[in-house]
Amino acid sequence: MWSAGLGVFEGFAIENGLIVATGPAALELPGEVIDLAGGFLIPGFIDGHAHPIFAGREARGPKVKNLQSVDEIKSEVARYAEENPNESWIIGGAYEAAIVSGGDFDARWLDEVVSDRPVVLHAVDHHTIWVNSKSLEIAGINSNTPNPDGGTIARREDGSPKGTLREPISFDLILKHAPADSVESDLEAIKYACNELISAGVTTATECWVEPPMAEAYIAAAKSGALTIDMHLAFLVTPQNWQEQVAYIQELRAQISKLPEPNRLKANTIKFLTDGALSSGTAAMLDPYLDDPTSTGLKIWDDANLIAALGAYDLLNFQLHIHAIGDGAINQSLNAIEEVVKTNPNWDRRSVIVHAQLIAPTDLARFKELDIIANFQPLWSYLDPMNKELIEPRIGSERNNRQYQLRTLLDLETKISFGSDWPVTSHKPLDALFIPVLRKIPGAPGEAWNIHEVISLEESLTSYTANAAYQLFGERDLGKLESGMRANFVVLDNNPFETYEVEIKSVWIDGIEIKVN
Ligand SMILES: [Zn+2]
Hints:
It is built from 18 helices and 21 strands. By secondary structure, it is of the alpha/beta class.
């Protein structure tokens, strides 16, 4: 057995859902003894950045994930359309944008399989959608439609919309016409997500983009017992709506804090999106993109408005969870947090910058100085097709190769936590755990990517357990196997310090083995 950051011990004792003793002392206590038959035990994984409801919604639609050609995607959409003749909109995801050079997919390709009703597919980066012509028609998007502020519409040479749209404000032009998600349908998504997460060994997770009716669905799930893991909600606010959202968010936080114990739901965080993604050319950069020297990407907030919004929610003791990918967005976020720290009363704020992919050299030390947690997606820290085919041509190799400076940040004593960003990528921590340790997929051919940025397996595991617990203000009872902690743990079949071939044997929450069907 092993415990993140604490070394190896054999045997531990559980009483009333808590760990009461570890090591030899535990073996002396009376009670039932469970033999793990050589299993290796680690704390339950804690996912510090994920979108479980989006994953559940996506799982209902056509299954285009991991398909390797436009033809394969078309046949899956055709199959789904035929099997679901009464569905008025076909919405699904998430397709691999790197299979088409530049990532601009054409509406006409989808028209060949479905032309009578709208089709909307999300790309894996979740900053891009590909739609058919019916969707464009319903939304009234044509050659004369300007790009919305904070989004883009890909065009053909004649100026007509091609069928690929980038950033949520653009999706909204189309999706506002689709049937709205309901508490009932999102409740189903939550059940699906909880089962998937538990099977992957995740015992606490986050929902990092909460809009109505998602919080309401979580409240319903908590009341009915359908919420089987701990969940932390982060409400999304935008430059346009952050002021009017204050009352709604405070009301929901209050409702959630009053749910009967044991209450698995918390809602103390606000999500801010400051840019898009490098793969779609929408991450905000300090210097221009190479493939479009007129562009430095998308800066979603202006500086003053961002400072005002962060400051207002910080003053209400909400934790700030800021999506920033490009060095421009990260710089803007650091500057804004610096202002908030200077102006607002001091408190244990634990602000988070999530993704933190490309940090300007002069900004690296500021994470520690401003006591900001960098939440990384460990599965992204190797030279995958997205980094190689989509990102490198846009930003060049020097900037591409400076992504994910985990070692540098840890050496600067930065607090690092992990999250999956599911359904952007796999929710399974075991798919991701070894990637920042090797900077490649275990056992795969090819070179490690920037080997000097590797971290140890212990650091990787700690980022997905104890450090993520700290991010969620849960370090007193989560993320470690210590006396007094909640008995949330995962039994692996092998020791991950000896082999990459590790699978989950069982998952325990509050001392009870959770069976997933
Ligand atoms: Zn995300």
